[in-house]
Amino acid sequence: MKKVLIILGTFLTLIIITGVYIYYNVKPDIKLNGGDIIISYGDKYIELGVNAFIFNNDISNDINVDNKVSLNKIGDYKITYSITNKYLKNISTIKRNIKIIDDEKPIINLLGKTEQKYYVNDKYKEEGYTAIDNYDGDITDKVTIENKVDFTKKGNYEIIYKVTDSSGNECTEIRKIKVEEKPVPKEPIYQNTGTGRGLPILMYHYFYDKSNGEIGENSNYMEVSDFDNQMKYLSENNYYFPTWDEVASFIDGKQVLPEKSVVITIDDGQSSVFEYAYPILEKYNVKATAFIITSWSSGFKNYMGGSLEFQSHTHNMHRVFCPGGHGGKFRCIDYSEGLEDLKKSAEILGKNDVIAYPYGDVTDNVLKITKDAGYKIGLTTVYGKAKKGMDRYRLPRVRMYNGITLNSFIEKVKWNLRIVLEFFFCIYYN
Predict the structure, then answer these.
(1) Under DSSP, is residue 294 helix (H, G, I), strand (E, B) or coil?
(2) Each residue's pLDDT tens digit, 419-430
C-alpha cells in the first residue's frame, strides 16, 4: 500500500509540476499575415491582420493591437500585436515594421513658354518658375538652374531646372532656347530727307465675343473673331514686331526696320484683354504691349512672360478731371503729383520704357513729368503712323475700331502714305 501511495504522490507531483510549467511557460502561437509593409506618403494603411492559436484553438479575436503609425509623417514605425489567453498567464507579442516613404517626385512649373526664340546678342529674361512637393510643399527656393545659352552665336540651347525634395526625389524641366540671327531689312524705310512711309502702331482697347451673345458697346471694342483673323494675317505674312528700344532707334534715325513691321498696343488692361486677346496672341506668337492702369488692375501679373508686355497707362491718372483736350486728369496735375504717380506705376510694372497717355492728352508739363520719370517713348491717340524724326514723346497711333474688315486692316498695317483718308473711317474715342 505504501508503495502505491508513493507512486500516486509522484504522479500528482509530476502533474502539478507540468501544469505549473504550462501555466508559466506555454505561450499562444501568434503569426503575422504578410510581413513588413512600406507605404507611400498619402496612401492608406491596410491592416493585414494576425492569427493566434493555443493548443490548436483559434484565439485571434483576443488579439490587442497597438498602432502608433502616423501616416502624415514619413519615418519608421512598429505595430505591436499581443494576446493573453484567459487560462494562461503568459503573453505572446509580435511586431510588424511599417515604413512611410515619400517616393513621389516634386513638380516644377515653368512660367512663360518652354520653347523660346531670341536673336543673337539679345539679353535673356528669366520668366520664372515654381516648384511644389507633395510632402515638403513649396520648394521653389531649392530649384537650381543650369543655363549655358550662348547669346553671341546662333544655335539650339537648353536651360535645365532641377529640384530635389527632402527624400531625394528629383525633378527636371527644360526650357528650350533657339538663338537666331536677327533678320536684315531688305531696304531702308526712310530716305535721308526724313520723309516716307510710317511704322503703324496699332491701338486696341476692349474685346468681345458675339458667339456668347456679347456686343461691342462702342467703336473701341473689337470682336474676337476679327482680332483672330488680324493676328493670323500678321503671323502668316511674317510680320516683325519691334521692341520699344528698336522703335526709339527707328524714330531717331539710328536703325532701319523690316518693311513688314508693326507694333500692337492695347490700352487700359481690362479683363477682356486676358480672356480673349491673350490666347490669340499666344496662338500666333504675336508680340503686343498692354498699357496698364496699375491702381485698377493687378491680374496682369499672372500673364507676365508671355506674348504680352506690360507698360504704363499711369498709376491713377486715367480720370476725367479738367477741361481741355479730352479732359484727362494728367494734363492738370502739378509736377510732383504726376512724377510720383509715374514712379509708382514703374515700381509695380518693373519697367518704365513707354507710356500711353490717358485719353491721349499731352501738355508741356506732362512731357516734363514723363521724361523726368525716365520714360523713353510717349504714345498719343492722334491718328497716324510713326515716322523718322518725330518727337518720341508724341507718337501717333492707328486706331483699330469695331467692325473693321480684314482688307481695311491690311491697308492699315502696310507701310504706305494712306493715313489721311483712313482717319475719316475711324470714330475717334479715347
Answers:
(1) coil
(2) 333 443 443 333
